[in-house]
Amino acid sequence: MSEVEDRNNEDIFEKVIRAGRRTYFFDVRETKAGDYYITITESKKFTNEDGSFFYRKHKIYLYKEDFNDFQEALREATSFVLKEKGEVVISERHQADYDPKAYRTHSNGDSDKNQPAEKFTNISFEDI
Q: Going along 1-47, which residue ranges are E strands?
């Protein structure tokens, strides 16, 4: 087996992100033609009733001709989320006192940017 064939089965670059029950793997691999591509794998841990566990994996193959479009779409999507909801994570998993009814959205679609309704105080100039 040649060195090139040997490298096809090896990761050339690896980056791992652990996020709770999920782990994300970013791997650079080599095509048979000798070019590189990226695989993005999400691995999620599940527990069986007997206490044993298993992983469910989903994989995306990303080739160089799609890098620019992928980067732009990811940038646009992340910018949208941060603009609309801010950087604070809103979830029962991340906040012990999370109450979904406490987070409201106005009729025009604007939210209170992570402000729980019961903690939000509307102040007028007359109050100052």
A: 13-19, 22-30, 36-47
End-to-end CA distance of the chain: 79
Tell if the pTM clears 0.85, that is, is over it: no
CATH code for the domain in which residue 85 is found: 3.10.450.700
Average confidence score pLDDT of the chain: 79
Question: Do the beta carbons of residue 104 and residue 91 sit within 8 Å?
Answer: no
Segments in the chain below pLDDT 50: 1-7, 106-108, 113-121, 124-125, 127-128
Residue pair 36/27 in contact (Cβ under 8 Å)? The answer is no
Residue 126, in any domain of the structure: no
In a domain, 119, yes or no: no
The dihedral over CA atoms of 71, 76, 78, 82, expressed in degrees to the nearest 10, equals 150
